[in-house]
Amino acid sequence: MASRPRNVVEVKHRKGAMGSQEICSFLVGWHKDDKGLYVSTGGFSKDARYEAERASIPLSPMDIDELVAALIENYDALDNETKQLPPLRRLYWPI
User: Fold this and answer.
1) How far is CA 87 from CA 18, 70, 80, 82, 90, in A?
2) pLDDT digit string (tens) for 20-31?
3) I want to staple 78 with a disulfide (CB 3.0 to 4.6 A). Which of 13, 33, 41, 82 is the partner?
4) Cα–Cα nearest to 17, from 56, 61, 55
5) How far is CA 60 from CA 53, 84, 91, 93, 94, in A?
6) What is the pLDDT of residue 2?
7) By the 8 A CB rule, do 39 and 12 touch?
8) What is the number of alpha carbons within 13 Å of residue 15 lying toward its C-beta?
């Protein structure tokens, strides 16, 4: 049996926006203490974001731009093994 709370993540790589039906399907069978993250490289329709907001559990929809921003923001705090997955290098650009 899984311990509570669970963090459930689904990642979809697609060109088009994720619709509300996919969000609803993702939410089936969750426990009230679970938390979710749904990543879609194609983004989300307005209805999909609405479904995520009104979900019975905390659900964060994240498009590719939000994923990249989160990765950059938290990169320094990652362990070395995880940093090897997306090998980034800091660049300094004059303003």
Assistant:
1) 28, 15, 10, 9, 10
2) 999 999 998 888
3) 82
4) 61
5) 8, 25, 30, 32, 34
6) 60
7) yes
8) 0
Closest CA relative to residue 32, chosen from 13, 56, 8:
56
Binning the chain into helix, strand and coil, the percentages to the nearest 5 are: 35, 20, 45
- Interatomic CA distance for residues 86 and 24, integer angstroms: 30
Q: Which residue has the tokens 């705090």?
A: 77
- For residue 62, the one-letter residue type is M
* Tokens of residue 58, six digits: 């905390």
The pTM of the full predicted model, rounded to 2 decimals, is 0.78
Over its C-alpha atoms, the chain yields an Rg (Å, rounded) of: 16
Pairwise pLDDT comparison (95 vs 57), residue with the higher score: 57
